[in-house]
Amino acid sequence: MDFLPEDIIMINARFFRRVGLILFFGLCIAMLSKVAPAHAGDPNEPKLNVSSVSIVLNETYRLRVYNLTEDQSVTYRSSNPSIAAVTNTGRVTGISCGNAVITATVRDGRSVVATLRCEVLIGPAAVSIKLTKTSIVLQVGRSKLLRTVIYPLNTVEEAKFYSTVAEVAKVSSAGRVRAASEGVTEVYALLLNGTYDICEVTVLSEENYQKYRQGASLEELLNQGEEDEENGEADETEPEPTATPVPAETESKDAQTTGGSGLVSE
User: CA-CA distance, 196 to 126, in Å (whole number)?
Assistant: First the structure.
């Protein structure tokens, strides 16, 4: 059967039209699959408390699995026990520096319900710590992040923070100081070996903070606050009588009398 040139052109046009339609629908399906929301796991399914953790050499971290039923049990296994050892209760101990994966297998009877993994990095402990600020001044209600320099640089240890006067300023586990009330406190940044550094935190009211920015000394502003408190307490003191008080008239016998406790007696 002979094909004329017009027939060949028509066949090619149909072919490319079909290929184009196939590619178009394929592209639409691909786009829909990309924008479709990822399937969110069941909020009640078993979950590890962390998916990754850094542990100081010779220190221990506890892994926990949440959302277990009474019939479910968990077993733990380390991919490299010479780096990170794990007990049957999920306690991971750093044996040597390196990486390992802890696998938590959740079973319901003999059936495996979930396999959970946590990446573990074991690193050296810190030797020294230095805060980049030795003192800061904050306005009540404001906050500031304290930064540290910890050696050696490859340590996985993080500083622990605490404030000596939490009523003046609180500090988060990450080192963010939040001013609460006027006064002075010290924020400590500590390491496991007992090494620490201190930052003095002075908190001022909005009015005093503006005065401080304009050049007033901290000592003057803080002393002024103490004097204001003392004057306020003095103003609240009842004045002493200038003459002998005159006793009030005695109530009638029909009136209720109060006992020594201050309660009304029947």
Answer: 11
Given 187, 211, 235, the domain boundary residue is 211
Q: Is residue 31 part of a domain?
A: no
pLDDT digits (tens, 9 = 90+) for 6-60: 554 555 555 555 545 444 444 333 333 333 333 345 788 999 999 999 999 999 9
Q: What is the CATH number of the domain that holds 66?
A: 2.60.40.1080
Contacts of 67 (CB under 8 A, 6+ apart): 44, 45, 46, 47
CB neighbours (10 Å) of residue 136?
17
pTM, 2 dp: 0.64
Q: Which of these three, 123, 139, 157, is where a domain ends?
A: 123
Q: Before 152, cis peptide (omega within 30)?
A: yes
Q: Per the structure, how many domains does the chain have? A: 2
* Nearest alpha carbon to residue 106 among 62, 134, 53, 65: 65
- Cα 62 from chain centroid (whole Å): 18
The reply to whether 114 and 141 lie within a common domain is no
Residue 265 included in any domain: no
| Local structure of 177: helix, strand or coil | strand
| Dmax (CA) of the chain | 139
Q: Which residues contact 266 (CB under 8 A, 6 or more apart)?
A: 256
Burial tier of 252 (Cβ tally within 10 Å: 0-12, 13-18, 19+): exposed
Domain that holds residue 177: 128-211
